[in-house]
Amino acid sequence: QVQLVESGGGLVQAGGSLRLSCAASGATFSSYVMGWFRQAPGKEREFVADIYWSSGITAYASFVKGRFTISRDNAKNSVYLQMNSLKPEDTAIYYCAARLRSKAYENWGQGTQVTVSS
Questions:
Q1: Which of 3, 4, 118, 114 is nearest to 48 (CA)?
Q2: Which of 19, 50, 83, 111 is most buried as measured by Cβ atoms within 10 A of its Cβ?
Q3: In a 3-state reduction of DSSP, which class is residue 31?
Q4: What are phi and psi of 88, to 5 degrees?
Q5: How far is residue 35's CA from residue 52's CA, in Å, rounded to a whole number?
Q6: Alpha carbon distance 6, 77 (integer Å)
């Protein structure tokens, strides 16, 4: 089955950068859409960005446009989220997720904590 393992979270000052990684296994991901979501304390999980594995087409939530970049590396079966100009409100657990193009997200990683100090 699909397995997703995130890494790269940590503590950073406002204005700093982090790069999250998601190692994917258990499927041929050319038919998948890979996404990043986040959940802050007391809030619902929200969409951050996604990428169609085969075409590289991306989409972003409005609150991260121009600051975050999602990418994938076919050779490493990995998806990345480069986060720049981080703000305290970006503090959350960040989750990697995968779905087939015609379905809802059903595969999730364990999450990685990102904390941005002011």
A1: 114
A2: 83
A3: helix
A4: -55, -35
A5: 9
A6: 12
The residue type of 114 is V
Paired sense of beta strands 18-25 and 68-73, if any: unpaired
Instruction: Answer whether 1's CB lies under 8 Å from 70's CB.
Output: no
Region at 106 (left for phi over 0; alpha for psi -120 to 50; beta for the rest): alpha
Which three-class secondary structure state does DSSP give residue 90?
helix
Contact between 113 and 95 (Cβ < 8 Å): no
Structure tokens at 104: 């809802």
How is residue 50 written in tokens? 């996604």
pLDDT in tens, 9-55: 999 999 999 999 999 999 989 999 999 999 999 999 999 999 999 99
